[in-house]
Amino acid sequence: MATPSAIRSFLFEAGDIARFTGKFFSQVFRPRYEISEFIRQCFNIGYRSLPLVGLTGFIMGLVLTMQLRPSMVDYGVESQLPAIIGIAVIREIGPVITALIFAGKIGSSIGAELGSMKVTEQIDAMEVSGTNPLKYLVVTRVLAATFMLPILAILSDAISLYGSFLGVNIRGGTSFYLFWTQVFDNLSFSDVLPAVIKTFFFGFAVGIIGCYKGYNSSKGTEGVGRSANSAVVVSSVMIFILDLLAVQITDLLGFN
Amino acid sequence: MSGEVVNSKIVSVKPVIEIVGLCKSFGNNHVLTNFDLTLFAGENLVVLGKSGSGKSVLIKCIIGLLDQDAGSIKVFDSEIIELDDTELDQVRARVGFLFQSNALYDSMTVRENLEFPLRRHWIKVSQKEVNDMVMEVLEEVGLAHTIDMMPVELSGGMRKRIALARTLILKPEIILYDEPTTGLDTITAKEIIQLMMDIQKKYNTASLIISHDMNCVRMASNRIILLYEGSCYANGTYADMKASEDSVIKHFFE
Q1: What is the mean pLDDT of residues A183-205?
Q2: Angle of helix A189-215 relative to helix A108-119, nearest 10 degrees?
Q3: What is the mean pLDDT of residues A47-71?
Q4: How confident is the prediction for chain A on average, in pLDDT?
Q5: Which of A110, A128, A135 is the mutation pick for testing B, counting most B CBs within 10 A?
Q6: pLDDT > 90? residue B207
């Protein structure tokens, strides 16, 4: 049972994150635009996450297929395996698992990096060097996370479906063409679009929470560790909350 | 209070920093209460005080990293709290700040660390001039060979020298030193203090040095302000302070 002080501190933190998000939006459209730093962050956040996201996506597709296959055989609908895997991966499992992996890798890295910059006065040094640290450090990282996660999720979906194709062929003989035809014939625009849109929100949540935790880090190296840790925990929970909201909204809009 | 001090080493009487009635609190912790300070051009002023007495808070207020609760801080006749972002950047370009922890950017090489203030303050110089300026300050601190190294590859003393080089690259008229010898062994600390003195002579900068290291205070100061219980307790030369019979002052100089 949550104590009143725990509820109060949760509400205070929620308020602080909302204020921090407000500061982000107050800076994002105002020059000077840190284009080169944004591109550098896209490379760090997007490209460097690709091997991990690709590997987990591949294993996810393969394992999901191998686990699902016996039940499908029992019900006599083995031929529908690619279609079911396709819908599950594209609509839900791909975006959410990719976002969680992303939160673990990028959320913690942003939290630790900014936290360590904060406690070693590098953020202050930036400010006295004529740089707005909120714009240079926070805006670039949040935007990079927001735009890179959808791309990673799409790539992860593709790799995951390839893993699934291999999984199908472990005990069967489905051609590459047939597998992909079955996947795409059962997918519609309303499956793909909401799944892609929600990954922008997942990416934004991971970026803003990682930056908030790092930017407000204190108490030396212990505080840096705590920032990295809580950045992952809070952004992971946030991903599930946003996913729940996304499902409700797509349901209301008739996409389900 | 600065008017009471007669110091032959002060080359000019023009104040570059004037602080009057500065107050700064964090909750119920009243760190600075009615603090006054004047720094003259070309002067080396040491602010001496115990750990946690508000010395670092003081210089962070001077450079605009913290807003004061009350009082006036004028740097080059500009009231810091009234400046907009652009004006504050213009003042900051004329003031160097050596951080206690050096604050070198871990993800950048020494060269990138030194180029950063030049690029960010929109200083209009060609790449060749940037390279020349970087080499000049690196040679000044005796570390030209470290230009492509990462900060993590440097020793504590080398990091301090590079941080000093980064402070120098914009040719500031004032340098604020926050505990410049903290974490250094005695020999390295003396080398850093000597370097600070050489720089001051060469560029005729005014220096405000925050310290509780008595070696630093003795070697570096033209004048000392003793910060005690949030305000200026005493103001004078090292010799004046050393000769004082006041129990608080004696506590520092014994």
Answers
A1: 93
A2: 20
A3: 94
A4: 92
A5: A128
A6: yes
Which of B128, B104, B126 is CA-nearest to residue B116? B104
Phi, psi of A129 (to 5 degrees): -90, 20
- What's the rounded Cα separation, in Å, for the pair A206 and A103? 6
Q: What is the mean pLDDT of residues A176-201?
A: 92
Q: Is A121's Cβ below 8 Å from some Cβ in B?
A: yes
Q: Is A127 on the interface with B (CB under 8 A)?
A: yes
Cβ atoms of A195 and A160 within 8 Å: the answer is no
Query: Is the pLDDT at A120 greater than 70, yes or no?
Result: yes
pLDDT of residue B121: 77
Q: Is the pLDDT of residue B227 over 60?
A: yes
Stretch A7-11: mean pLDDT: 88
Task: Give chain B's domains with CATH numbers.
Answer: 2-94+172-253 (3.40.50.300), 106-171 (no CATH)
Asked if the C-beta of A16 comes within 8 angstroms of chain B's C-beta atoms, the answer is no
Which residue on chain A is closest to B163 by alpha carbon?
A125
Mean pLDDT for B63-83 is 93
Going from N- to C-terminal start, the domains of chain A cover: 34-252
Contacts of B110 (CB under 8 A, 6+ apart): B138, B143, B146, B147, B148, B149, B150, B151, B154, B162
In terms of Cβ atoms closer than 10 Å to its own Cβ (0-12, 13-18, 19+), residue B252 is: buried
Which chain A residue has its CA at the smallest distance from B88's CA? Answer: A130
Torsion over CA of A173, A176, A181 and A182, rounded to 10 degrees?
A: 40
Residue A20 — left, alpha, or beta (φ > 0 → left; ψ -120 to 50 → alpha)? alpha
Q: Is A125 on the interface with B (CB under 8 A)?
A: yes
B interface test, pick of A121, A134, A137 with most B CB neighbours within 10 Å: A121
Q: Is the pLDDT of residue A30 over 80?
A: yes
- Which residues in chain A have Cβ-Cβ distances shorter than 8 Å to B60? 124
Please answer yes or no on whether A124 and B60 come within 8 Å at the CB atom: yes
* Of residues A151, A38, A64, A159, the one with CA closest to residue A99: A151
Amino acid occupying residue B95: V
Partner residue opposite B121 with nearest CB, options A113, A124, A130: A130
User: If we measure between CA atoms, which residue out of B39, B32, B35, B37 comes closest to residue B16?
Assistant: B39
